Amino acid sequence: MDGYIRSDKKLGIRNHILIMSAADNVNPLSRIISKKIKGSIFVPASYGRGQLGNDHKNYLKIMSGIIDNPNVYKTILISMDGDSADWIINESNRKKDIHKITLMDNKNMNSCIKEAIKIYEVFKKNKKYIKKKLFNLRDLVLGLECGGSDTTSGLIANPSLGFFVDKLIINNGSAIFSEPVECLGGEESLIKRCSSRKVKQKITNVIEKYAKIAIKNGVDLNGVNPTPDNIRGGLSTIEEKSLGAISKSGNSKISGVLDFGERLKNKGLYLLDAPAAAVENLTSLVASGCHVIIFTTGGGNPVGNPIAPTIKVTANKHTFKKFKDLIDIDLSEILETLDYNIGSLKIEKEIINVIKGKTTASEKNNYLETNISRFGPSI
Amino acid sequence: MIKAIKIKNNDNVATLIGNVKANGLVNIFNNDGSSYKIKAKEKILFGHKISIKKIKANANIIKYNSSIGTAKKNIDQGCHVHTEEIRSHYDKNNNLEKLIKVSLPLLKKKISLVLNKYISNKDIKKILLNYFLEAEMKGVKTHGIRRLPLIIDRIVNKSINLNPKMTYRWKGSMLTVDADNTFGHFAMIKSIEEIKKKISSKISVTCSIKNSTHFGYAGYYSSKISDLNCISIVTSNGPPLMSPIGYKEPVVSNSPLAISAKISENKYFEADFATSVTSRSNILNAINNNLLINEGLIMNKKGVMTTNKDEAKNGILIPLENFKGYALALGLELLTGVLAGGPILKEIKHKDKNSKNLEKISHFILAIKNNNYKSPTKLVNMLANSKRNKRNQNYWPGMRKYINFVKSKKTQSIHLNKIDYTNLINL
């Protein structure tokens, strides 16, 4: 397996060249450019203008985090003005991998497009000079996500993934799971696995934070979870539902909690503080540095991320049939054998194939999206 | 045959992957692939749970090796276990901001466990235990067990003396104490014991304590002194945290002031407040819980009021009514640091998490006996008759603490902030 060495010495498994908007007012321009350049990856901006305080900081952290993701080779950053782009560049650890194009400093829109195409061709030519190194499992940062969960998620798909995560962590690899709001009721099982008192406290605080946001907005999390659907499917309490979601992180020690937009610096298993909605969550996992994301689903969720190949896993055969072109792994046979190890080996095999270059279902069908969470108003 | 998965070894329920009829056999699979058979007592559907052991009422229902709730009733082996049988731990408590109920003996045990782990001096342990229990019983959350992690950090950093040699010097009715850098709680209680020895022969006593550390909430001590048939005043200084608007650095501590008198058994008039608009602990609590910080509570390092969390983290507290609270705090600095001859203002170092600095703060006690003085009963009775709307049911200072105290004593239980309690257990 080849890994590509980046300017910050990290190893990537893809050589993406991004066409990124610095703010939403240039999304149309970046979209035109990316359509003209086959193989480029379009990263639109979500807002980016008029955001305040922490909300704006979070936005910059995520945008620069995407640029710094090891799967990204170069970024062409499109901006209306110099400032919007510079704010993002300043947050990046790989400033020299960014080429900035601003509408203000160009003659017109067409000259921007021409410049972007010219730069892209240069980047593309230089791809052959990228140094390579053997990519081992210990180099992997795996993102863990689940969505559209049903009975099979907590029973088969998530525990099988957890089985693989344990193996990954033992082999000195890294994994990031997220969605603290879906840990509500499962805190105790997480706390037992923490490496220190500080991590315990941070986990408790971060889970409570989401509970409080929900309560503040009039949502009674314990009243809506499990949903009537969940109850019909056999889930009895919010604890049971959360533990099913948490089981995707295995039994390994939790080394720490990452703030929203924070990059992974050390190895181990981490909980990332980010909202649960799939597109936002995948984006924040990528900004924290994930190479590959395993996305388990029960009833089905179609979306993948353009930067980190997203491997979709289900143990529900009806879902697999229905979403065949969007799901990569069918684990429904584990319902017969009841052996999580088989499930985990299937996941491992697919991860290795994807690292070697296999395109995932969502990549093949270009069902890819990014979006950045926001927590405050615009003015 | 219908199969069911037992996910972890300790689980007492398994999940069915197929529909089973009453009296049908179910093959229970362990996570290592081994299996055994049990009989289903009733019809159970795909995805639902079957009990694989007898489960007593109120016992935990275990799946994923964790409790997913407790049994509402006795459950036999082979039964359907679902919403009718399981009570979620969140059931009654559907608002997480609500507090969790902990019995007094349990809380006492948990605090003792923590203290035993870090402190060997029995005298200190006893005084700290009494303090924290009473603070929680009276509902003083900002200065209760929430502060224990900070104290433990200081013990670990060795910035607190666990085996102090305190010295007491009397001159007329003035007592001077050197606390030898021990716990403020211990220094205060020991000084009060010393005052108790001599107060019968005096009209009033002042006490200056230096080389001490944070003592919790001042009202605790002023009320203890009023047990000696006195009106009492207690105050303290601390590291600088507060300045009037426009100042670019904190100048003075938001020193507390407590004035107490005993009304009857366990019932105290207790005027107790700090000199800032809000406490630093409230600001940090808001930051940690992602709550909004209101305008007018804290300034940034440019001397401008802020609501930004990053600025607020190391911000400067704003005094009560700006210059009035500032003046009051400086007046209290006269009574504490200046009178005791200890460090004042900036000379007092901050007690950051990793700091090995000794705190060296000063406290001041004034206890006044007067033959004409009986008790503040008349004052309190007059307050009872004041016209007020329904929300203002606590009509004398200290009444809220008193009501909390009586309630927790009667029920032998306390409602604790969930995070505080979890942090205590994790210490």
Q: Could you please describe the fold and organization of this structure?
A:
The complex is a heterodimer of chains A (379) and B (427). By secondary structure, chain A is α/β, with parallel strands linked by helices. Chain A has 15 helices and 14 strands. Chain A has helices at residues 27-36, 53-68, 82-91, 109-126, 151-170, 187-191, 197-216, 221-224, 228-233, 238-246, 278-287, 317-322, 334-337, 340-356, 361-364, and strands spanning 2-5, 11-12, 16-21, 41-43, 72-79, 98-102, 132-134, 141-147, 174-177, 254-258, 269-272, 292-297, 310-314, 329-330. In chain A, helix 2 (53-68) crosses helix 3 (82-91). The longest helix of chain A is centred in the middle third of the chain and has 20 residues, at 151-170. Chain A is globular and about 65 Å long. In chain B, 41% of the residues are buried. In chain B, helix 1 runs antiparallel to helix 2 (122-137). By secondary structure, chain B is α+β, with helices and mostly antiparallel strands. Chain B has two domains: 2-87, Archaeosine Trna-guanine Transglycosylase, Chain: A, domain 4; 104-276 and 319-426, 2-Layer Sandwich (Ribosomal Protein S8, Chain: A, domain 1), CATH 3.30.1370. Helices cover 30% and strands 23% of the residues of chain B. Chains A and B meet through helix 5, helix 6, helix 7, helix 8 and helix 10 of A and strand 7 and helix 11 of B.
